[in-house]
């Protein structure tokens, strides 16, 4: 897996690398599924590596998968770690920035009431986060708002309470960052240059709010 990553990552950032054993009817050996972010990078990797002895004695057969079983039209958002990875690759560590506009505890705002005699040890913790992502060299600025939620089994335990708080805050920030990046369209040209566009179809009602409004926002 490490050898595959080393070879194919030279053509562009990789989303994932997975190695599997061949089916029993196919004989001993392995096959790998390598996912690129860019179809252009995948195509160049296939043309260059197919039939070559990359890190093994026998030539490697490389083909592009054009049909996926159970494929759906719904686009799945990249998680925050993948968003950071892509941003660092195409814009550089200093070519983009993010900041938290607000991160607030909204636990208990859903109107739920505890029944009489019910234990209060288990409770739900919720944090609402608004994040702003800026690409100064491209003049693009986007926002994302998201809710992080988790249950605390024993809210009377200080250590568990602090641990859960940090976990929920991190989850809310990550989801908000991912939401902000969904409004950014990257166009990677053959010469390696990157064009950036703001995807207005992904706009939310919160995008038109001022920072003061966002800081006072309570959404569950």
From TrEMBL:
Q: DNA-binding as a keyword?
A: yes
The GO cellular component terms are:
cytoplasm; nucleolus
Q: Where is it localised?
A: Cytoplasm; Nucleus, Nucleolus
In terms of superkingdom, the source organism counts as Eukaryota
Answer yes or no on keyword Nucleus: yes
UniProt-listed CDD domains? RRM_RDM1
The cross-references to InterPro entries, in alphabetical order and at most eight, read:
DSRM_RDM1, Nucleotide-bd_a/b_plait_sf, Rad52_Rad59_Rad22_sf, RDM1, RDM1_RRM, RRM_dom
The GO molecular function terms of this record are: DNA binding; RNA binding
Keyword terms: Cytoplasm, DNA-binding, Nucleus, RNA-binding
Gene3D superfamilies on file: 3.30.70.330, DNA repair protein Rad52/59/22
Q: How does it assemble?
A: Homodimer.
Name of the featured protein: RAD52 motif-containing protein 1
What is the species listed in this Swiss-Prot or TrEMBL entry? Eudyptula minor (Little blue penguin)
What gene is this protein a product of? RDM1
